[in-house]
Amino acid sequence: MPDIYQQGGFEEIVLYILGAIVLIICWGCIYAFFRAIFLFIFSKGDDKEIKAAWSSIRYMILGLFFTVMVLFVSPTLLKFMHFQGAEKYTPTAIFTYMGKIISHITGLGNIIVESQKMNEFNGNLYYDLDNPSSFRL
After folding, report:
1. pLDDT score for 134
2. Which of 19, 26, 38, 116 could serve as 98's disulfide partner, Cβ 3.0–4.6 Å?
3. Do 36 and 60 touch, CB atoms closer than 8 A?
4. Can you tell me the distance from the alpha carbon of 108 to that of 97, in angstroms, rounded to the nearest whole number?
5. Which burial class, exposed, middle or buried, applies to 13 when counting CB atoms under 10 A from its CB (0-12, 13-18, 19+)?
6. In sequence order, which residues have a C-beta less than 8 Å from that of residue 21 and are 6 or more positions away?
7. What is the reported pLDDT for 49?
8. Residues near 72 by beta carbon (within 8 Å), at least 6 away in sequence
9. Helices 10-41 & 91-106, crossing angle to 10 degrees?
10. Kind and range of the H or E element at 20?
11. Packed helices 47-80 and 91-106: angle between N→C axes, nearest 10 degrees
């Protein structure tokens, strides 16, 4: 019977969850930043839109604070809760799983691997090596 705490099991699920949380918060911070810029540029001196822009900046700063909390406090909290394998939930591991999530979403890794497979040398030469010609590449 497989163990739930083996590699690829429970630890990986927790790291994927922590990575997803950090990604969602970061995307929210980026959205709040660009929203604030947009509102400041097109506010035309309207106090309501300027207040909304400042609120967006507050949300962005709050999001950055939550990101730091998730990255650095969650490993300590998991150790305090006596989570098995809590030493593996480091910020480096969380960033690694964030990269895995992004590569799954964008599919960029698959495109690169597929292009490398398509361009492999399959034994079909572009020119004949046995023919001593000056027209070779």
Report:
1. 53
2. 19
3. yes
4. 15
5. exposed
6. 70
7. 86
8. 91
9. 70
10. helix 10-41
11. 120
Euclidean distance between CA atoms 64 and 69, whole angstroms = 9
pLDDT in tens, 33-78: 999 999 888 888 888 888 988 999 999 999 999 999 888 888 888 8
Q: What's the pLDDT at 135?
A: 53
- In sign, the C-alpha dihedral spanning 12, 14, 18, 20 is positive
CA distances from 92 to 37, 56, 59, 71, 98 (A): 31, 29, 25, 9, 10
Q: Residue 88's pLDDT is what? A: 83
Residues in the chain: 137
Q: Say if residue 96's pLDDT is above 50.
A: yes
Q: Which distant-in-sequence residues (6+ apart) come within 8 Å of 36 by Cβ?
A: 53, 54, 56, 57, 60
